[in-house]
Design goal:
The chain is α/β, with parallel strands linked by helices and about 475 residues long. The chain has 3 domains: about 5-155 and about 285-355, FAD/NAD(P)-binding domain (3-Layer(bba) Sandwich); about 170-280, 3-Layer(bba) Sandwich (FAD/NAD(P)-binding domain); about 365-470, 2-Layer Sandwich (Enolase-like, domain 1). The protein contains 13 helices and 22 strands. The chain has helices at about 15-25, 45-50, 55-75, 90-110, 175, 195-205, 225-235, 330-345, 375-380, 395-400, 425-440, 445-450, 460-470; strands spanning about 5-10, 30-35, 115-120, 120-130, 130-135, 140-150, 155, 170, 185-190, 210, 240, 245-255, 255-260, 270-275, 275-280, 280-285, 315-320, 360, 365-370, 385-390, 405-410, 415-425. Strands 1, 2, 3, 4, 5, 6 and 17 form a 7-stranded mixed sheet that branches. Strands 8-15-9-10-11 form a 5-stranded parallel sheet. A 5-stranded antiparallel sheet has the order 18-19-22-21-20, sandwiched between helices. β4 and β5 form a beta hairpin. α1 (about 15-25) runs parallel beside α8 (about 330-345), α3 (about 55-75) runs antiparallel to α4 (about 90-110) and α3 packs across α6. It is globular, with a radius of gyration of 24 Å. The structure holds flavin-adenine dinucleotide and 1,4-dihydronicotinamide adenine dinucleotide (NAI). Flavin-adenine dinucleotide (FAD) binds near residues 53, 289 and 330.
Length: about 475
């Protein structure tokens, strides 16, 4: 087996494995190193996303949503079930199978594209003539050299000071996705993306869920109108969210976890729960990389410092995904991975950071791309807004899911679409139309004049575009 490569990628999450495949497609001899272990100690390529992130969370969101539908909404369709039960072990087993299918899929793609995979921790040893020596510490130790190195080592959950994760009582995303039973009382710190998604899963299955959030506003990065609509839906579902809290001492004992905090009014409070999920953001993974050996520059958060094109301070060393600046999203990592491979090949890889969509896979789903109304106001941009409620959409009524709306923001003078914000059914899929439109710098009039299938949820996007010009047809 060759130990000299054109490109060595450290990390096989969505940033790394996609960079490796694209580099191989471009004709390079590529190695990809990843240390993630499955339950049997074998390789599990796919990173956080595949193993303890995007994929397993969506599997559990689907199972729990099915349970909620069966218990609370099937009756509306005339479907009556007796003795509805949730078998958590089967649900977790299914999630593990879905994860494994994805691990196997990536291993297959590596073979297909002739990417050489190494299972173990990758670290810099030294700069060598025309490249870098990289050590792989796995079952055996290997030394590789690469002309170009792409760091894609991802991120890990941030713990509360003084309350390390034990994954039994105080859980990160790892433990949150692997609970063997539904806790009676579940606490979450942080009402960000993980807080809302994981809170939704376990609430649907019967847990009494309380989320403590430090900020005074709910989902501050989301368009205010959309966040307000989502909050209404979560309140109705019984997801308790307390804003503006200051979390104090967290004590884990045999009977559960006790959290001392002050509420928004400054009053001392305590919350006792059986399990606590801490979802207060993530930290870049750079400790195992041995960056000092080659003088790779890190930022204050421990992130690898890069320019807009993912170049580090070292020639031939690049970094992509969660380990660098920008949103911690799988598709952002993938885009950067592709762009870097293309730049190495002398092409003009490009990522438009203004057009990275966000999706929160709760029910209702929340999705957006581009600027929010509050950002446009802050920036003094003159805009027109159009909204269309799913309540007025035939397909949404037939689905029995009429919560929410599509909102479109367009430049007042040119009509160019500046942002699209959706809360409601299948927002995760609907947002793609907005991304395409904005990538082609479409106007709201363009969307308003495109024929959309009837009945479909996508008609709501067309109607929101019509609403920008105050001429909705169905509302
Ligand atoms: P990672 O996926 O973190 O992969 C890095 C890999 O590098 C890991 O396998 C790690 O073991 C390996 N590694 C680290 N150091 C070394 C080393 N020294 N040597 C060898 N290997 C090493 N994003 C979305 O876009 N959509 C979602 O729905 C979504 N859901 C999420 C749900 C949860 C619960 C979480 C936690 C995250 C979610 N994310 C989601 C975020 C997404 O998972 C990350 O943005 C994405 O995984 C980042 O990809 P990456 O390749 O940069 O890093
Ligand atoms: P987050 O950044 O989304 O949310 C963290 C929340 O915790 C914030 O609202 C923050 O104000 C709050 N917080 C921070 N410190 C706190 C404290 N001490 N006490 C109380 N609240 C505190 O981070 P999260 O949810 O951990 O997720 C990490 C990242 O993973 C996300 O930002 C996202 O990039 C990614 N992710 C993406 C998903 C998706 O795309 N659907 C799903 C899940 C995660």
């Amino acid at each position: 087996m060759s130990t000299s490569f054109d490109v060595i990628v450290i990390g096989a999450g969505p940033g790394g494995y996609i960079a490796a495949i694209r580099a191989a497609q471009l004709g390079f001899n590529v190695a990809c190193i990843d240390e993630w272990k499955n339950a049997a100690g074998g390789p599990a390529p796919g990173g956080t996303c595949t193993n303890v992130g995007c994929i397993p969370s969506k599997a559990l969101l689907q199972s729990s949503e099915n349970f909620e539908q069966a218990g609370k909404h099937f009756g509306e369709h005339g479907i009556h079930l007796k003795d509805l039960k949730m078998d958590v072990a089967t649900m977790i087993g299914r999630k593990d199978t879905v994860v494994k299918q994805n691990n196997d899929g990536i291993a297959y793609l590596f073979k297909k594209n002739k990417v050489t995979f190494f299972h173990g921790g990758g670290s810099f040893v030294r700069a060598v003539d025309g490249g870098y020596e990289i050590k792989v510490a796995g079952k055996t130790e290997e030394s590789l050299t690469g002309k170009q190195v792409i760091v894609a080592t991802g991120s890990s959950a941030r713990a509360l000071p003084g309350a390390p994760f034990d994954e039994q009582s105080i859980l990160s995303n790892d433990g949150a996705l692997a609970m063997g039973a539904v806790p009676k009382r579940l606490g979450l710190i942080g009402s960000g993306v993980i807080g809302l998604e994981m809170g939704s899963v376990w609430r649907r299955l019967g847990a009494e869920v309380t989320v403590l959030e430090a900020l005074p506003t709910f989902l501050g990065a989301v368009d205010e109108q959309i966040a307000k609509e989502a909050r209404k839906a979560f309140d109705k579902q019984g997801l308790k969210i307390e804003l503006g809290v200051k979390v104090g001492e967290v004590k884990a004992g045999k009977k559960g976890v006790s959290i001392a905090y002050t509420n928004a009014k400054g009053e001392a409070q305590s919350l006792d729960v059986d399990k606590l999920i801490v979802s207060i953001g993530r930290v870049p993974n750079t400790t195992g990389l041995n960056p000092e050996a080659v003088g790779l520059k890190l930022g204050e958060r421990g992130d690898v410092l890069v320019d807009d094109e993912c170049r580090t301070n070292l020639p031939g060393v690049w970094a992509v995904g969660d380990v660098v600046r920008g949103p911690m999203l799988a598709h952002k990592a993938e885009e950067e991975g592709v762009a870097v491979a293309e730049r190495i090949a002398g092409q003009h890889g490009h990522v438009d950071f203004n057009l990275v969509p966000w999706v929160i896979y709760t029910s209702p789903e929340i999705a957006w791309v581009g600027r929010t109304e509050q950002q446009l106001k802050e920036q003094g941009v003159k805009y027109k807004a159009g909204t269309f409620p799913f309540m007025a959409n035939g397909r949404a009524r037939a689905l029995g899911d009429t919560t929410g709306m599509v909102k479109m923001l367009a430049d007042a003078a040119t009509d160019e679409i500046l942002g699209v914000h959706i809360v409601g059914p299948m927002a995760s899929e609907l947002i793609a139309e907005a991304c395409v439109a904005m990538a082609f710098r479409a106007s709201s009039e363009d969307i308003a004049r495109i024929c959309h299938a009837h009945p479909s949820l996508s008609e709501s996007t067309k109607e929101a575009a019509l609403a920008v010009d105050k001429r909705t047809l169905n509302f």
